[in-house]
Amino acid sequence: MPVRNFSTASEAAPGHRSHSVASNQKWKLWLCKWKPWLCCGGACCVVLAAIAIYFVATYWPYRHRVVDPQLSDVFASEVKFSQYHRTYFPSPGFVASGITLRRKSAFDQPPFGSVEKVVVRGRWSDLFLLRKRVALVEVTGLHIVVPPPGSRANREEFPAGSLTDFEGPDILIDSCIFRNAVLDLMSANGHRTSFRFHRLEILNLQKGHVLTYDVDMENAIPTGRIQAWGTFGPLNAKNFGTTPVTGHFSFSSIELDQIGELKGTMASKGQFKGPLGAIEAEASTETPDFAVSDGTRAPVSGWVKCVVNGLNGDVILRQIEARSGETIVHSSGAVTGDAKVANIDFQVYRGRAQDVLRPFVSSQVPITGLVSLHGHAYVGPSKPGIGFLQRLRVQGAFDVPSERITNSATEKSLTKFSERASGQHSPHDDKTNPSGSEANHDADALSSLEGPVTIRNGIVNTNQVIFRVEGAEANLRGTFDFNNENVHLTGKLMMKTDISHVTTGFKSAILKPLAPFFKKKQAGAVVSIAVTGGPGHYQVTQNFSHKK
After folding, report:
1. Domains of the chain: which residue ranges?
2. Long-range Cβ pairs for the range 190-199 (8 Å, 24+)
3. What tens digit of pLDDT does each residue of 231-263 get?
């Protein structure tokens, strides 16, 4: 058995060797047959690689000398780098840092802006197909400082017509993202107004194209968060105001106490479209705690339809509706000028006096009831140390046809006075019946007010307010101070009954013989009165010697 096995193995070995020899011969024959083609293919690969290397070296778009003018177009400025290096994998591009910006038309001026870092990424497919296209431009820490208006730096860095060199880049940028950017507007007194952009993304950025934007930023004054998204362009550099823009926005956490003497936190949202010089906008607002100065905070909502000039910030207010309680104030007007001033026409039809007055007074509103009013309001430019009430001027008229006094003591006194003036209450009733129950003093007297008013420096002034109550009519003039809520009105009171009926006891006995001297035609008596006092202490007196 062992011998046979050995001989079998020995006999099989030559066959195996012959098979290997045959395989090698076939491989050599195949190699000889295809060798010329393999050599040709290898040569082609080498040539193509050489061509690719030459092509990339020749047309590489991310060299400094190529990138520099492109970034200059994006920022419309002269751009200088402190560090710059190219990237190849996984995407072609470059990274630059320590960038300074200056106007092309004012090289002698200091840089007006800087950038912490710029990252640019492209695509190899775009590179080999010679497409002028960049996938991403990411800008971190952009800081722009605009010099004070009228200053030499402002005139030389931002000359008239300088926007003509800002039409957008020639190449297409799929996405341009700005992170943590700051725009500072300087004033002549050194004050800095800062707008902070958490994120601004621009898609499809290219000269002559419509771009899409999405911004998340913080407003300067009043502070609040703005989120907006929409389209812009194509940019018309020769007539910037005709550039179309569309979008939606939300403006939240608006701190109104940064605007003069307004109080409250407002939120707004809306939409807009049109040319940059005349943008049609609609917006709604909600302020749950609105007040003026130390007034009582109350919920106020609003709606506005306006036209905004995106070049200078002027606003034409076509229609405004502001709701406080059950009262709607209809307004229209404009906010215009370098130092913005507001001119507003307003009207209230059958509103409620308490709704109108509540945001202006800190204590209980002095009257309630229906009110109609109309007028014109002017709000001067905001200046340090000058509050809203000092900037507000109003010329108008009002009509409160059926009011009630909210102060119980004043209302009770007015009711007694009305009964006496009508001859329904004897001057001796207060002595014989101190409680006044038989005279029904619990029934509140209804009164009315109407007349023209002006407001200057927080003081309401009227030269003829007519006050009516059953049995009497008063023609008054004077003031009401929104700052301390004090009233000072003087004038003439006409009554159906004689003068002795409006006093009691000893005063009535003394005035009885004098009644004929105060009697007038078609009136029981005409006497001088005064309405004076402050919150909780308003009073009507028959003081013949009261100063006007």
Report:
1. 62-220, 407-541
2. 193/220, 193/221, 194/220, 195/219, 195/220
3. 998 888 778 889 999 999 999 998 888 876 788
